[in-house]
Amino acid sequence: MQPNKIKIKNYQLNSNLMLAPMAGITDTVLRSIVRSMDKDCLLVTEMLSSEALVNNPNAKILESNENESPLAFQLSGHKPHIMAKAAKIIENKADFIDINMGCPVKKVVCGGDGSALMKTPQLASDIVKAIKDHVNKPVTVKFRLGWTLDTKNFVEFGKLMEESGADAITLHARTRSQMYADKADWAEISKLVNEVKIPIYANGDITNIKNAIECLNLSKANGLAIGRGALGNPFLFKQLEHYFNTGEILPEQSLKEKIETLKEHLNCEIAHRGEENGIKFFRKFYPYYIKGIRGGGAYRGKLVTEDNYNNIINLLDEIIENEQKILHIHSAN
Ligand SMILES: Cc1cc2nc3c(=O)[nH]c(=O)nc-3n(C[C@H](O)[C@H](O)[C@H](O)COP(=O)(O)O)c2cc1C
User: Fold this and answer.
1) pLDDT band at 3, cuts 50/70/90?
2) DSSP letter string over 147-171?
């Protein structure tokens, strides 16, 4: 099964996959790790506040490297002229400008940003138009099914975004009131797919090849945006690309390979943020990388409190050694 590769406006991508934006997660380091697994997928930055960006156009969060292309920069905000100004600042770094219309977090929606824009569709439309008028890059939008289950408006909203000039959509198949609860309703996405011509990336709960295929079948979407499924398992992108291109399923990574990826991720965060900050920042990732291993809880507890780099590496090596000893005992029996 090989879905047609996605074209966003005049930009022909060689992939159907997107790394979904995640604040505090999809920094230049994680994006580069995913890029090393998948040379073609669309990467998206964390959400960047348009107001903050206009006030500080050289913020560290804007860092990216050229290997990341195709890369979308995601903006949040609700003032069309500020969003347009912010888009202009990042125009030369970005292949696409993505607009956040899906973030459910209270402090974001209270200001009228994120998924609050689904309650002010005219304003959302004005934002798309303002950005399109100011920059010469394809503009994409990311939103949810609606504000609540009773007020789902994603079909009308998506049609309006297309009419306003949006060149692609990422649809997270939950409402704002669901936050991250319940299961993403992939079949709902097909209703919008039937109504618009621009490509749609289905999003929510895609974590392996089996459910990626199920999501494509149910949603009829052109592509898949993967967020949490990439945490601790950026290899999923390689597996999926390989499957779409050949029909073969690559075996899961061994624990040793996973830990090697973890170490690379950690080392690059340290290079990016300095040793102390890099080690602290990285703590959120350990549980994902070592999920499911024997004695994982105890190691997790040690890793997330350890400040010393060499001790961290020793703990990681111990995890690999223990696993190899257990495998050896099993194979001897
Ligand atoms: C920690 C975290 C941060 C997120 N930050 C953003 C963000 O900055 N912009 C955005 O559009 N969505 C953000 N999301 C939502 C994801 O892009 C995605 O829509 C959601 O997690 C569902 O997809 P998944 O099940 O593949 O993770 C975030 C999600 C998480 C878990």
Assistant:
1) confident
2) SSGGGB-HHHHHHHHHHHT--EEEE
- Among residues 86, 115, 122, the alpha carbon closest in space to that of 100 is found at 115
Q: Which residues contact 229 (CB under 8 A, 6 or more apart)?
A: 205, 206, 207, 208, 236
> 226 C-alpha to center of ligand 1: Å?
9
Residue 39 DSSP one-character state:
S
pTM exceeding the 0.90 threshold for the entire prediction: yes
For a ligand 1 pocket test, name from 22, 108, 118 the mutation site with the most ligand atoms within 8 angstroms of its C-beta. Answer: 22
pLDDT of residue 216: 98
Catalytic annotation present for 268: no
CB atoms within 10 A of CB 122: 10
DSSP alpha helix (H) spans, the chain: 28-37, 50-55, 80-90, 106-110, 121-134, 154-164, 186-193, 209-219, 235-246, 255-273, 275-282, 286-289, 296-303, 309-332
How far does residue 227's CA lie from ligand 1's centre (Å)?
6
H or E element at residue 75: strand 71-76
Domains along the sequence of the chain with CATH: 7-246 (3.20.20.70), 255-332 (1.10.1200.80)
**Residues 157/192, Cβ–Cβ less than 8 Å:** no
